[in-house]
Design brief:
2 helices
Length: 92
């Protein structure tokens, strides 16, 4: 027979509730950290899009392109909106 290690918290063959709660807590913390980083990264993408595609049209040597300007503006507004919605869902 092989001896199984004994747990301090639960008898052999039973689920350890403390270990389960610890794993659930760690998963929740990781999820919240990812959600916070997602909103911050979306804000950054929105700012970079605004700078590159919207403001870049005014200093471009190739001239003003209305399609790039409007596309950049729409993408910028979309990323800011999504970032705001993700940030709003975070528990404070």
């Amino acid at each position: 027979m092989v001896a199984t290690p004994k747990s301090r918290f639960a008898p052999a063959g039973q689920i350890n509730p403390l270990r389960c709660l610890t794993k659930i807590l760690i998963c929740c913390i990781i999820y919240l950290m990812k959600q916070t980083n997602l909103s911050k990264n979306l804000y950054d993408v929105g700012k970079l899009t605004f700078a590159a595609l919207v403001l870049g049209q005014f200093i471009s040597a190739q001239g003003f392109n209305i399609g790039v300007f409007i596309g950049g503006l729409i993408f910028c507004i979309a990323t800011f909106t999504i970032a705001y919605l993700v940030d709003e869902e975070e528990p404070k």
